[in-house]
Each structure stands twice: as C-alpha cells, then as structure tokens.
Amino acid sequence: MSDDSPQANELFLSLVFSLQSAAWYQMGKIASPISGKIERDLPQAKMSIDLLIMLQEKTKGNLLGEEQQLLNSAVYNLQMNYVDELNRDKESPPAEAKPAAEEGQAKAPGEKPAEGSGQGE
Predict the structure, then answer these.
(1) CB atoms < 10 A from the CB of 106, how many?
(2) 36 domain residue, yes or no
C-alpha cells in the first residue's frame, strides 16, 4: 500500500478520529461507549493529545490538505478543552475530595452510606 493511496488516507483519518474520540472520553466530555457513563482521566487524555501532537510533528509536510487540516483542528480543539478541564479542577476541586465531616456525615473507611442519606441517589 502506497502512502498516498485512498486506503492509507482512510487509515490515517481513522487513527486521528480514534485518538480524538479517546481524548474526548478521557476528558469526560462525552460518555464512554463501553459503560455509557461520563468518566474523567485527565492524565490519559493528555497522553492521547500528546500522541496526536507527535503524529502532527512526524508527518509534517507529508499530509494531504484535508489530513493536515483535520489533525490541526483536532489538536487545537483538544488542547483548548484540556486546559479548560485543568482550570475547572483548580477552581472547584472534585466533590469526592471533600472530607466526610464537611458533608456532615463522618464515616469509617469502607462504610457504605446509610439508606436515605441522599448520597448516590
């Protein structure tokens, strides 16, 4: 398969879309296709974005216009959203980080919340 064949173009675009989708899931911007839940893993999101940046650097000057535009757009949008997620964490720490005493219900480690406590409902 030559580098400029239609199949190579489709494979490249699929790779970019795959890494881009993974980063969106990892930032918690869209639900996981496996669990259907919103899950955040910012270190993994950073890794997916870094992989796209590496791809951008390694393919510089060797991409078709459409490929370059898609890759540049994906990297830019993901980087901006990643920074927003980092800033959001700085402004308001996640609820799980609050000590149980602040929530008015001290619990022993591993203890499940009492029924009707309002937690997890």
Answers:
(1) 10
(2) yes
